[in-house]
Structure to design on (942 residues):
């Protein structure tokens, strides 16, 4: 499985590359805030003429304060509901071919992310592992609102 | 285009044809006769047959064929048209529509199909029998028989005269032909089947003789005489039911063989040409006759097919023939031109076709064969009708048009939308330029703005279709339903040419159908009840469309019983939609509006038409999602009137930017009545919750603080510090409180639901010039959700 791996919170996280339709530099994007929506719905952006919502994953997973740097990027995900949704992530680490043999479906750690949002854990070397997110579940319209 | 493409193309055209057929049938039903429409009907049905055959929808095409034959008998006046027959045809056309879809998706159940087909045939036979000829047969049997004998007498006389002449002229031949033709016609009237078939072959032969393909020599004359005698035997046999069908078939075969033998080899034509040149004067004469004939032919082409005009031509020719004595037989060669192997192709006409005693049908087949003798009859017919079909549709629709996919137009629309966004970006930038340069740029941009509005209108107009396209399906719905409910209804529609966004048409069909169903089911009473109420027995259902200040207004009214507001109110109370208190304060018009609530139906008996209480709420939702409004007016025994107000388009609109704290929001301009900064004394507080209302002139207008609705920080704390924008929501005025209002702007509407979901109080979004997103306020839902006190609303109304 090819995945885009990024720094997020205190570790490495991955999203299936096929789902990612684009990467935007956070600083260059105008996000128009919404009101009355959940606090992790940052607002809407103009993505090539389409109005696209932006979700702050950090806030979504319990961090109270958003933390943006000049490295922050927005990954545009096409969900299985056929919606384009942007997620804010800290920094792209790399695009990796993940060996599914080293895959473990039992999440034994918790960083405040509910197990249902995690697809799998994959060990990439002796000391590092990647948490692959179940991004469809995370960005399910029912879940984010 | 692949075969599938052709299929799809045919389906599209079939839809139009069906629409035409329905329309014609409805008119016919009303008039109680088919005469005026039969030609058009026949043509459309014929086109359906041809088209479907050419794309391989054989089951469908086979069924249509029988219906076509039946229509043909009607056209030939062999069947007396009754209301029953018109209804029958309508049913069959309905069935055909279903069958077409089944055949298209290759889901035809063969057993059922053949059952349906045979029941169609049976029914047609019954009509043909009962509808006139058979009755006539009993009464006039002898009379007709006598008539046949008379014709035989004349015929033999002519034949005898011909045998005595050295040169058989075309008049003589025409007379013989006519007699034989009449024999055929009269025998069909007698309900005979075999005999006409025989006579028909004979007639064909004589026709070839007239065309010059067979030299009508003395020998031929003798042959004809013999065959006529044979035909007499057949006639007697069939009349006395003693005809042996095997023997008959042999006789027919024999006749055909003889005809084949007679068919002129190519040199014969030459002989005729020589023959025709013997008289200068006559050839001049001939020219005239031909001219006249041709002229007639031409003028007919527009309305009927060439096939028909051939017949007309024949009549005319006969008339002319009388005047011109001794015109050589050759004359007709001109007409048929290159089409020589006429009779040779005849056997190719499908057997089924021939069994049918209808003259026109056969003639048609022949003529088609004539047009391109190389191809088989079937292929040719489909090709033919395809061509004429396009011609017909073109005549109906307009001089020149093309079919374009909606997605292409949408794409065009989106591009224009992007341009509008880019334009406002330029405007924003130009405003930041200081000094005269900035002013000049803004002035120039003004031109751009104007050009772009025009461009946008032009693109919009491509998407606009006349209301006719909405109306076209309605008469059928009304008619079917009225019949089912045993009600008598006159359906009228106005504003056919008012244009409406194509996208809206789709969303509009369901609500309109629903309202019409409701009006018919609950509104218009049974004829007896109407008479008892001293109303005309026939109810009136009317739909009107008009364009008014950027809106399309569609009104559907009936003169039925009206909505029983008491009952609706009671129901609403029972289902907890309103409280007793609220109900007591409601006016009739408001109670009527309660029908749009889910789960309310006053129908005492649930019918399969309406009355399940689902529907009117769906109507409301559909209209609202189109950005429109609906209201209802009703009067006991006076009828009800539904008024639907729709925006002209969904894609681009004018909006007013309003400010709440840091947020710039957009109000649709067409909802705004006026805006003002109120004085303190204009604000009144009422009720326990101290609802704020605006006292403006003679009106009391409820106020909604938008910052409260959206939980936004705001600057103006007191009402007199900010602005009140008065909007009109379904005949009710509401004042929205904002900090300030800014510029007016043209905006491109973008869906929020595409990538997200509906947001409370926001109907859609737009992209601003600076790349940010603007949110368009959904005034209707804001008013609904804040539950503006109804009593106040009624004061304001």
């Amino acid at each position: 499985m090819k995945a885009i791996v990024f720094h997020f919170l205190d570790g490495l996280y991955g999203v299936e590359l096929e789902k990612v339709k684009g990467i935007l530099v956070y600083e260059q994007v105008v996000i128009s805030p919404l009101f009355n929506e959940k606090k992790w719905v940052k607002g809407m952006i103009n993505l090539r003429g389409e109005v696209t919502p932006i979700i702050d994953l950090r806030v979504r997973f319990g961090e109270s304060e958003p933390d943006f740097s000049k490295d922050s990027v927005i990954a545009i995900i096409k969900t299985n509901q056929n919606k384009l949704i942007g997620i804010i992530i800290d920094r792209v680490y790399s695009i990796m071919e993940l060996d599914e043999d080293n895959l473990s479906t039992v999440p034994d750690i918790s960083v405040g992310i509910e197990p249902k949002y995690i697809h799998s854990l994959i060990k990439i070397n002796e000391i590092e592992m990647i948490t692959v997110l179940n991004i469809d579940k995370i960005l399910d319209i029912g879940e984010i609102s | 285009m692949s075969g599938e493409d052709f299929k799809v193309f045919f389906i599209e055209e079939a839809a139009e044809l069906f629409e035409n057929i329905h329309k014609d049938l409805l008119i016919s039903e009303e008039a109680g006769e088919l005469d005026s429409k039969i030609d058009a009907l026949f043509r459309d049905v014929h086109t359906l047959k041809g088209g479907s055959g050419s794309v391989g929808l054989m089951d469908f095409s086979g069924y249509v064929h029988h219906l076509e034959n039946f229509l043909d008998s009607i056209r030939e006046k062999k069947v007396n048209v009754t209301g029953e027959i018109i209804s029958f045809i309508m049913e069959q056309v309905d069935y055909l529509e279903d069958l077409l879809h089944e055949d298209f998706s290759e889901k035809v159940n063969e057993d059922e199909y053949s059952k349906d087909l045979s029941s169609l045939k049976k029914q047609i036979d019954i009509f043909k029998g009962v509808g006139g000829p058979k009755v006539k047969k009993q009464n006039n049997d002898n009379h007709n028989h006598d008539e046949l004998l008379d014709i035989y007498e004349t015929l033999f006389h002519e034949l005898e005269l011909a045998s005595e002449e050295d040169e058989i002229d075309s008049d003589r031949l025409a007379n013989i032909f006519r007699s034989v033709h009449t024999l055929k016609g009269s025998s069909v009237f007698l309900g005979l089947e075999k005999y006409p078939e025989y006579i028909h072959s004979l007639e064909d032969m004589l026709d070839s003789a007239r065309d010059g393909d067979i030299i009508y020599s003395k020998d031929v004359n003798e042959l004809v005489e013999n065959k006529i005698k044979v035909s007499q035997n057949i006639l007697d046999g069939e009349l006395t039911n003693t005809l042996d069908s095997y023997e008959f078939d042999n006789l027919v075969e024999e006749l055909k063989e003889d005809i084949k033998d007679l068919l002129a080899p190519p040199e014969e034509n030459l002989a005729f040409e020589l023959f025709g040149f013997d008289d200068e004067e006559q050839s001049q004469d001939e020219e005239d006759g031909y001219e006249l004939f041709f002229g007639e032919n031409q003028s007919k082409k527009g309305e009927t097919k060439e096939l028909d005009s051939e017949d007309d031509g024949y009549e005319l020719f006969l008339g002319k023939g009388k005047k011109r004595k001794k015109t050589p037989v050759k004359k007709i060669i001109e007409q048929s031109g290159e089409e020589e192997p006429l009779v040779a192709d005849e056997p190719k006409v499908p057997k089924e076709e021939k069994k049918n005693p209808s003259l026109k049908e056969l003639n048609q087949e022949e003529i088609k064969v004539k047009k391109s003798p190389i191809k088989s009859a079937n292929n040719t017919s489909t090709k033919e009708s395809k061509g004429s079909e396009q011609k017909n549709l073109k005549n109906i629709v307009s001089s020149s048009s093309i079919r374009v996919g909606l997605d292409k137009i949408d794409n065009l629309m989106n591009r224009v939308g992007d341009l509008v966004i880019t334009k406002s970006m330029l405007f924003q930038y130009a405003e930041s330029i200081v000094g005269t340069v900035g002013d000049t740029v803004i002035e120039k941009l003004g031109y751009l703005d104007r050009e772009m509005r025009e461009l946008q209108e032009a693109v919009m107009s491509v998407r606009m279709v006349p209301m006719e396209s909405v109306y076209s399906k309605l008469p059928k719905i009304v008619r079917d339903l009225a019949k089912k409910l045993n009600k008598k209804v006159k359906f009228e529609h106005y504003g056919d040419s008012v244009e409406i966004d194509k996208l809206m048409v789709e969303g509009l069909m369901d609500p309109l159908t629903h309202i019409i169903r409701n009006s018919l089911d609950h509104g218009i009473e049974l004829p007896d009840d109407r008479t008892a109420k001293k109303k005309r027995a026939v109810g009136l259902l009317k739909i009107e469309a008009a364009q008014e200040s950027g809106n399309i207004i569609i009104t559907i009214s009936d003169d039925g019983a009206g909505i029983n507001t008491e009952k609706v109110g009671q129901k609403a109370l029972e289902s907890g939609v309103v409280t007793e208190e609220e109900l007591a304060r409601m006016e009739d018009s408001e109670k009527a509006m309660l029908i749009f609530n889910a789960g309310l139906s006053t129908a005492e008996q649930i019918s399969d038409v309406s009355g399940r209480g689902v529907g009117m709420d769906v109507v409301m939702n559909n209209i609202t999602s189109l950005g429109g409004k609906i209201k209802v007016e009703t009067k006991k025994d006076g009828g009800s009137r539904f008024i639907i107000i729709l925006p002209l388009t969904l894609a681009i609109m004018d909006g007013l930017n309003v400010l709440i704290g840091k947020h710039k929001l957009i109000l649709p301009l067409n909802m705004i009545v006026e805006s003002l900064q109120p004085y303190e004394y204009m604000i009144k507080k009422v009720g326990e919750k101290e609802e704020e209302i605006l006292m403006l002139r003679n009106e009391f207008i409820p106020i909604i603080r938008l910052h409260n609705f959206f939980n936004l920080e705001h600057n103006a704390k007191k009402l007199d510090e900010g602005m009140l924008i008065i909007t009109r929501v379904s005949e009710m005025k509401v004042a929205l409180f904002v900090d300030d209002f800014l510029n007016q702007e043209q905006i491109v509407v973008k869906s929020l639901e595409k990538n997200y979901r509906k947001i409370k109080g926001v109907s859609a979004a737009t992209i601003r010039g600076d790349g940010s997103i603007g949110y368009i306020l959904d005034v209707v839902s804001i008013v609904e959700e804040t539950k503006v006190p109804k009593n106040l609303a009624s004061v304001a109304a």
Summary: The longest helix of chain B spans residues 133-164. The CA atoms of residues 80 and 131 of chain B lie 5 Å apart. Chain B has a mean pLDDT of 74. DSSP finds 31 helices and 18 strands in chain B.
